[in-house]
Amino acid sequence: NKTNYSNEGNVKATSVCKTLIVAWKKSKHSCLGESAEYYYETAVHFSLSKMGYDKTSLAALSLVIFVNAYGVTFIFSFIGFMIVDLGEAKTRNEAGYVAGYVTSAYFLGRMLSSALWGYVADKYGRKPVLLISMLSVGFGGVLFGASTTFTMALTVRFLSGFFNGASAVTKAMAHELTSGEHKAAAMSLVTGTWSLGLILAPAISGWTASIPSNTPNTTAEATSSSLRKVVPEITLLSKSEYFEQNPYMLPSIIASAFGMLGFVLACFFLPETLHQTDLHGEYRAIDSEN
Hints:
The chain has helices at 13-29, 36-50, 55-73, 79-85, 92-124, 126-145, 150-162, 166-176, 183-208, 218-228, 232-238, 241-245, 249-268, 276-289. 75% of the residues lie in helices and 0% in strands. Mean pLDDT is 76; it is low at 1-14, 27-34, 47-51, 213-232 and 278-290. α4 packs across α5 and α5 (92-124) runs parallel beside α7.
C-alpha cells in the first residue's frame, strides 16, 4: 500500500521498507542477541524521525533538560546564608568566598566524570545516563538541604555533579530524535529550556527558603519575604516550625521533586536512541541508491 509521507522528511515508502529489512537482517546476525522486535521498533522510530520529529519525546526531553538546569542553580540564592548558618563564615565577604567552593564543587565533579559518562552513553545507552543523572538531582537536592556541616554540603554537591552526565546526553538525544531539517530547532529547544531552568531555580529557591533573621544580608531577607507574599501558602509552609529549623530544606525538596519527575519522564517517555545511530549510515546509503 502506498503511504503519503510528509514532504518535510522527504521519505519514500520504499526507503522505509528497505530500512526495516536492514534492521531485521541486523537482528538475525547481531552478536548482541537483540530481538527482531527490538530492531523493528527501532527502524520504525528512525523512519518516523526522518519525517520530522516526535513531539512527545522532545517535550519529555525538554523537561528533563529543565530539571538538569534546575539542579545546577537552585542553591545560588541561599548558599551564602547557608554558609553563615553552618558557621563557616561570619561576614558577607567570608560567606561569598566560602560559597564559591560549594558552587564550584558541583562543576568539578562534572568535569572529572564527563568523559566517563560519555563512554557509558555510547556503550550502554543514553537512557541509563539520564536516569542516573535525574536520581543525582533527586537525592542530591534533599541531602544538600539536610546538610549540617560545611563538609557534608561540599561533598553532596561534588557527588551531585559527578553523577550527572545529562548535559552532553540530552544534546545527543535532541540530535538523534529529529531529522536534518529540524536539528537546529531541536538544539534551540535544548538551549531555551536549559536557560529557563537556570533562571527559575534560584528565583523559586529564594522565594521558598526561610532565611534566618541573624544573617548579615537583611536586604535579601526582605526581598524574599516580599516575593513570598505573592502566594500566602508558600509563606505559611516556609514559616512552619520544621522549615524554620531547617531553612534550606523546602527549596531543596522542590529540587528533589523535580529530579524525580525527570526520572519518571526519562524512564517512560524517552526512547533509547543509541541503537538508532547504527541505522543512520545504512539508511542514508539505501536512500542514496534510489
